[in-house]
Amino acid sequence: MQEAGAVTGDRPGRLSFRRIGAGTRLAFPQGTVFGEPWIELGEHCIIAEQVTLTAGMMPGLDLGPDPILTLGDGVVLGRGSHVIADTRVTIGSDTYCGPYVYITSTNHSYDDPHEPVGKQWPRTDPVSIGPGCWLGTGAVILPGARLGRNVVVAAGAVVRGEVPDHSVVAGAPARVVRRWDEAGGWQPPLRTPAPVPIPEGVTPEQLRALAELEKELPQAGARPGTVVGERGRRLEAATPGPDRAQSSKGR
């Protein structure tokens, strides 16, 4: 059922998106989806189960000639997330959202103290999320938010207003807790070393051997940081570089 119910460009089913790029997939079961003619999904997006995607306040409206909700290439929306676009919402390429993220361009108003809040006409304001961002579990992006490039939003943060490039925001309301620039790097400085990338050509067997090594070194009284450094050296040694590959051919 999960395979048969998934939505792709080749198998859109009942959903008639304005665009759905190659390699993009909406997992089954989908959440609430309407206003698809005004929704554009880029290539290689991952839309997890029970994700809501809506354009307009209700189904059946004519929203004009332009798209309302746009996802760039490689966007990931985690399980149970909601993207509610009553006016323009754009999510930049390679932005990853954890589960239960809520992004909305609409908020209730409460100007009239005598009228129930739910019956008052809502306010709308466009939302823009730059490329390369990471939105943690349960983050809320409110109307009018403008996130720059490579912004990290902490789990449970509530974001409104403008967030500059290469920032980390946390809290409710969210505030900038760390920033990066060319001159000073990360401020305040990062407290943990950068992860060691896995070089090309490393096999699953070698990775399992390194995992065993990480267990052994602390037991042997290795100093902090030794595991990371040793892992990098072992990975480098295990990777067939040009010189080693050439010499192995000679043998």
TrEMBL record:
Keywords annotated in UniProt: Repeat, Transferase
CDD domains: LbH_MAT_like
GO MF term list: O-acyltransferase activity
Positions of region (Disordered): 215-251
GO cellular component, as recorded: cytosol
Family: Belongs to the transferase hexapeptide repeat family.
Full protein name: Sugar acetyltransferase
